[in-house]
Amino acid sequence: MPILNQMNKQGDKMNNLEMAQQYIAEGFSVLAVKSNNKEPLYDSELQPNGGKSATNDYEIAEKLFKKYPDANIGIATGKISGINVIDLDDKSAVANLKEVGLEIPKTRYVKTPRGYHFYIEYDENLSQTAGLVDKVDIRADGGYVLAPPSIVNGKEYTSSKEVSIVKWSEITEFQHNKVKQKRSQNFIESINGNKQPTWVSDALRGVGEGQRNDMASRLAGYFRSKNISKDIAITLMEQYRSKCEPPMEVVELMQVIDSIYSGRYQTFENYENQEIETPIVEVSIANRRVFRYPGQGIVINCTSITKRGDSLSCQIEIEDEGTPITAPRRINMLSSSSVDSLRKELTSIDAERNWKSILSNTFILIHKSLETSSVGHDMRTYKPEITQDGWSAKPYVKENQSNLIMGAGGTGKSTIAIATLLSKASGKNLLPNLYIREPSAVMFCDWEASEQEFYSIMYGLLRGAGLTEKDLLHPVIYRRFDAPLVNHLEEIQRDISKHNIELICIDSVVASGNEDTNSPESARTYHQAVRSLGVSSLGITHITKSGSDTHAYGSVFFTNLSRNIWSAEKDDDQDGNTSIIGMYHRKGNNTGGVHKPIGYEVTFVNDDEDNTVSISYDFGDLNKSSNLSAKQTNPEKILYQLKTRPMNREELSEETDIPLPTLRVTLQRLEARNKIRNSGGQYYINENDI
Questions:
Q1: Which residue has the higher pLDDT, 636 or 473?
Q2: Could you give phi then psi for residue 539, rounded to 5 degrees?
Q3: Fewer CB in a 10 Å sphere around the end CB: N or C, the chain?
Q4: Around 425, how many Cα atoms within 13 Å sit in the side-chain half-sphere?
Q5: How far apart are CA 581 and CA 584, in angstroms?
Q6: Nearest Cα to 400, choosing from 537, 499, 541?
Q7: Cβ atoms of residues 168 and 108 within 8 Å
Q8: Which own/partner pairs from 100-104 qualify as long-range (CB within 8 Å, at least 24 positions apart)?
Q9: What pLDDT shows up at residue 480?
Q10: Which of 586, 540, 577 shows the shortest CA–CA distance to 415?
Q11: Residue 687's pLDDT is what?
């Protein structure tokens, strides 16, 4: 491979476009990264999938870097560019490599602001690896690295003078194994330090024929529960394999390890009962848990989990190799007589298994999971990962929080929610004054309407904004449900994982429940369910029966447990195809205070030719509607009028219908808060409130 030349024909340093084209000439695929940043750019035409839109097309690269001349350059790693990259965080990482006997041969490298990127030829056996050793990662398929002359925090990435790119095989298997051995040794030392149950140490010495597969499953499940990486588990269990009598076949061992480490499931530590393997927790959401004991071939499905007083009950069903061996039944997990009755029944079916340990272990895990809310953090040093200002779609969706839009029927709350979703999926604002942090896939979960109705609204909103389905950068997933939300969490989670969904909408909160809406438990169930999905949520709900738009329908806990709540109200004086909608901020935990009311003018235009409707939003004057104007506070009315022009007291009183004595007091308060200023009897709004 030729030496990278950073000078053009005139002898001047290449700009980012010229460098990007140089990289393509070398066989690399490139992408544009935000200026002074490591985050990929999103461009609906040229880079629609962000970091997954790397290209080796000269024309696309030229358009991209002409449009974003200050963008950093990313090089995709893996097969697409024919390279893997060994990423060293800082200079100390070099010593960490040497400590385990691994020295990288001379190869092309890049000096990063703090460390190094070593380029090696693509090897299909290498995958994205964090922590090969301390401060050393591998970038492979699906990854990317910044390339010279990218700049982050004012510091530039620079190239080495090395010519060739070596093969991974030149880093000898012996050296590579030493890395794994070192990491394994650290883990083994923890075993010897009594941080591990005795059975693990005993099992690693090998077992006899007839026990090998079961014990291998048990060991692999235990290592996975301890967040031990798969490659370390393989190294540890090679010792186990060789010491079994007779030794276990390598292929057979790998099949066991692969089965345990495959899939998306969480594992828990066996808290009290070390007589049985730690189960794989395949489902842990709201009021459902599914436990799999691989070595036993047993699956325990616990649904409708309820905790009241001294009772912890669930509907339990037990399977053996996929076949139910007990009829579903309700059981109190804290009742020794109830548990013992189930144990005796199971023992009569299969006396070989330790049912006492299996049941005890399962119920302990359920109890622990319900009692544990989160990991404890020292808040003096805790730094949560909050992106920018913590908004997914400002001001309606606080990131990774439970958000609500409420209103009476026909106020347009669902349409506004769908417009927010489409803005998130397209990166284009379908609503005035809406801020989208970053485009992403979205999902609409519907209990009230139909796919046809949703599509009609979606099509109308896109058309009203001058967009089409092609402008949606990310998937918009629609699902219609009939059963309660908690029954559908698995399939929703699968969609979230499959499409990288970051925002879901629930329509409606009330219809998605299965309990008395007025009970606190129904509100807790809803909020636990949406939190378990790990994404931002926007729930659509109704207002109270009394017509109050300050609290959501049902239990007060629906309101109390939500972090960000808006209410929608429509004007009573609808004129033809145009109306005014007022959005009022009712609650804003950690949102920077209560937002000012937002007025939308929404227009519906019917197209008789194709029987479609166009829906468009613009800023709306709340004062044009008698009922919406009346909902504004006096300060809001004054500030709203002063946005149009300066006024004196008499003019303000006439425009706002605020009596002069009340007006004088309100003006004094606004002046004291530095919202307005008085000059010669004329009142002006300050710039920060325009």
A1: 473
A2: -95, 140
A3: C
A4: 29
A5: 10
A6: 537
A7: no
A8: 100/133, 100/178, 100/179, 100/181, 100/182, 101/174, 101/175, 101/178, 101/179, 102/133, 102/171, 102/175, 102/176, 102/178, 102/179, 103/175, 104/171
A9: 92
A10: 540
A11: 60
Q: Give whole-number Cα distances, 647 to 370, 621, 653, 688, in Å.
A: 60, 18, 10, 18
Tell me the DSSP string of 592-608: TSPPPPEEEEEEEEEET
Q: Is the peptide bond before 508 cis (omega within 30 degrees of 0)?
A: yes
- 207 backbone dihedrals φ, ψ, rounded to 5°: -135, 175
Q: Is the pLDDT of residue 241 over 80?
A: yes
Tens-place pLDDT, residues 595-610: 778 888 898 888 766 6
What percent of the chain lies above the pLDDT cut of 70?
Answer: 79
Say which DSSP state 410 is in.
T
What is the fold, at CATH topology level, of the domain defined by 391-624?
Rossmann fold (3.40.50)
Please choose, from the candidates 334, 217, 320, 318, the residue with its C-alpha nearest in 3D space to the C-alpha of residue 276: 217
Question: What is the distance between the alpha carbons of residues 469 and 135, in angstroms, rounded to a whole number?
Answer: 44
Which residues have C-beta within 8 Å of that of residue 100, sequence separation ≥ 6? 133, 178, 179, 181, 182
The SS3 of residue 108 is coil
Q: Is the peptide bond before 475 cis (omega within 30 degrees of 0)?
A: no
Q: Which helix (H) or strand (E) holds 253?
A: helix 250-261
Per-residue DSSP letter, 665: H
Q: Higher confidence at residue 396 or residue 198?
A: 396
Confidence of residue 521 (pLDDT cuts 50, 70, 90): confident
CATH number given to 633-689:
1.10.10.10
- Tell me what pLDDT residue 265 has: 32
CA distance 133 to 117: 15
Residue 237 has pLDDT above 50, yes or no: yes
220: its two tokens: 């692999």
CB proximity list for 583: less than 8 A, separation 6 or greater: 416, 566, 567, 568, 597, 598, 599, 600
What's the per-residue H, E or C state across 60-102? HHHHHHHHCCCCEEEEECECCCCEEEEEECCCHHHHHHHHCCC
**Structure-block tokens of residue 51:** 């970091």
Ramachandran class of 437: left when φ > 0, alpha when ψ lies in -120 to 50, beta otherwise: alpha
* Residue 437, amino acid: R
CA 603 to chain centre: 34
- Residue in 570, 598, 602 with CA at minimum distance from that of residue 585: 598
Cβ(439)–Cβ(473) below 8 Å? yes
Of the listed ranges 374-383, 429-438, 539-548, 560-569, the least confidently predicted one is 374-383
pLDDT at 386: 44
Average pLDDT over residues 511-531: 80
Question: Which sign does the torsion angle of CA 461, 468, 395, 382 carry?
Answer: positive
Residue ranges of domains in the chain: 16-171, 176-262, 280-371, 391-624, 633-689
What's the DSSP call for residue 103? -
Lowest mean pLDDT, pick from 199-208, 220-229, 465-474: 220-229
Q: Is the pLDDT of residue 385 over 60?
A: no
Specify the range with the lowest mean pLDDT, choosing from 275-289, 471-485, 550-564.
275-289
Is the model more confident about 488 or about 231? 488
